[in-house]
């Protein structure tokens, strides 16, 4: 990795004002966050030493310090333990899921539109992740930001800052080292406002929005998870009228011939 001599400036400084070297370092930070937040499969586990070296070579900054804390644990932990911990904190906990639109829209129809908008944003720049993940999966969003640049590329991250803050808090409550990766990312974004902090507290207490259209039949009952197929109610049986005189076969030869 090419040495970067300049120090990353505080997050309050606009990304548009960064020097080319600072931009390069910022993109590297986003790329490292993307990689470190992916599922630690065999390929990623085998690259831990390389990732650790890349983190240690970063110029001093709050983000680099947070990533160094995480890299120490990530490198020293066995692959099986890494995978077990990843599933526990990201797949089994709703408040630390890596799917960003969930925090803004919940499992509602608005989330589907948000996913479509994000996918269209990617295609408009000619970029496709190829990961098979939804477009709001945080490693995908980070990869897009790293490759596209600090203006439009980081817009989805800024839009979902409150969700990112909730993920960081949830990881901290679970005593997960992944909290350092979220802290590194948040240090690159504009500081949280008082309104942001209040919204995060409300989101943590009440959860994301729920679909409230057409749900009355399920009030007080057991609701199936989203996407579960519910078969339609059976149609009432067709009643066949009892045979009457009109149903008796005709004795007319022409009619019997037509019935053959």
Measured by DSSP, the beta-strand proportion falls in under 5%
Number of helices: 13
Q: Could you tell me the radius of gyration in angstroms?
A: 28 Å
Number of domains: 1
Low-confidence stretches: 1-13, 212-234, 243-260
The largest pleated sheet is described as: none
- According to CATH, the fold-level topology is TorD-like
Measured as a percent range, the helix fraction is: 40-55%
State the shape: globular
Structural class: mainly alpha
User: Which second-level CATH architecture applies?
Assistant: Orthogonal Bundle
How far is the first residue's CA from the last residue's CA? Answer: 89 Å
Order of helices and strands: HHHHHHHHHHHHH
Q: How many beta strands in the DSSP annotation?
A: 0
Reading off the top of the CATH hierarchy, the class is best stated as: Mainly Alpha
**pLDDT averaged over residues:** 81
Keywords: Nitrate assimilation
Biased composition (Pro residues): 228-246
Region (Disordered): 218-260
GO molecular function: metallochaperone activity; unfolded protein binding
What does this structure look like?
The structure is a single chain. The chain has 260 residues and is an all-alpha fold. The chain has one domain (25-206): TorD-like (Orthogonal Bundle), CATH 1.10.3480. Helices cover 53% and strands 0% of the residues. The protein has 13 helices and no strands. The termini are far apart. Residues 218-260 are annotated as: Disordered.
């Amino acid at each position: 990795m090419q040495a970067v001599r300049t120090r990353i400036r505080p997050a309050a400084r606009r990304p548009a004002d960064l020097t080319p070297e600072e931009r390069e370092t910022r993109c590297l930070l986003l790329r490292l966050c993307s990689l470190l937040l992916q599922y630690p499969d065999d390929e990623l586990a085998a690259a831990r030493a390389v990732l650790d070296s890349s983190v240690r070579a970063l110029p001093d900054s709050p983000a680099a310090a947070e990533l160094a804390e995480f890299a120490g644990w990530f490198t020293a932990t066995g692959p099986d333990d890494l995978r077990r911990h990843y599933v526990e904190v990201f797949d089994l906990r709703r408040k630390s899921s890596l799917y960003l639109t969930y925090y803004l829209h919940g499992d509602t129809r608005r989330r589907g539109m948000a996913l479509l908008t994000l996918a269209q944003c990617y295609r408009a720049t000619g970029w496709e992740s190829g990961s098979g993940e939804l477009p709001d999966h945080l490693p995908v969003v980070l990869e897009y930001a790293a490759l596209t640049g600090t203006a439009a590329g980081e817009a989805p991250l800024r839009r979902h800052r409150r969700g990112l803050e909730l993920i960081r808090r949830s990881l901290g409550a679970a005593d997960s080292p992944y909290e350092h990766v979220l802290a590194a990312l948040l240090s690159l974004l504009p500081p949280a406002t008082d309104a942001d902090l209040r919204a995060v507290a409300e989101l943590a207490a009440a959860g994301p929005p729920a679909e409230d259209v057409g749900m009355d039949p399920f009030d007080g009952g057991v609701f199936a998870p989203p996407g579960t197929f519910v078969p339609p109610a059976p149609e009432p049986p067709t009643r066949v009228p009892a045979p009457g005189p009109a149903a008796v076969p005709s004795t007319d030869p022409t009619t019997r011939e037509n019935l053959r």
